[in-house]
Amino acid sequence: MSDEIVFYHNPRSRSQMVHLMLEEAGAPYRIVPIDLDKGEHKTPSFLALNPMGKLPTIVHRDVVVTETAAIIAYIADTFPAAGLAPPMGDALRGAYYRWLFFGAGCVEPALLDRMMNRPEVERKSAVGWGSYDEVVAALEKALAQGPWLLGDRFSAADVYVGSQIRFAIMFGAAGFKGKTVFDDYVARLSARPAAQRTAGG
Ligand SMILES: N[C@@H](CCC(=O)N[C@@H](CS)C(=O)NCC(=O)O)C(=O)O
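That is the input. Now the predicted structure with glutathione docked in place:
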């Protein structure tokens, strides 16, 4: 069976993060371009893969994986030679999971709240991501030592959360833009060869 990952991609979408991850991992892949304007993500054949009709979506060895964070974690584990996930039993595995899941469970909804001007709920204790400001502060603290979320070790968590932070800065999100800790982190990410290979898509 081919080891090639079939990657359904549109550069104007979250699949950009997966593109970066595929390059970081040195994984074999083939891009299937998806034109969102033409609704190619809502065709019966695409919906058979991902009933949400969303990107990113990959197929590897006949297995479909969706959800950006899950795909990134899957690639890290499937191509271990790239060293993008601390192995089972490594103490850093805890921090690795922590920041990957924080990206999906906290950064993503907090950022969308802010970008869509959704009012913050009154009962912060009942909301998994607390508040936008707390999410920003947690990331700032996590990166205070650097250079990466796991300290000296670059990981797939940086691919995911780093891309979210880059996106936040690009859109001028308060708390991210103009803050040295985030600017320097994104500059380190952008200097990586994989980031340069995938710049613009
Ligand atoms: N929870 C998903 C969200 C994916 C998502 O919303 N993708 C957008 C593009 S950035 C999409 O495909 N939107 C098209 C649509 O829903 O019609 C993830 O993290 O991967």
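The chain has a mean pLDDT of 96.
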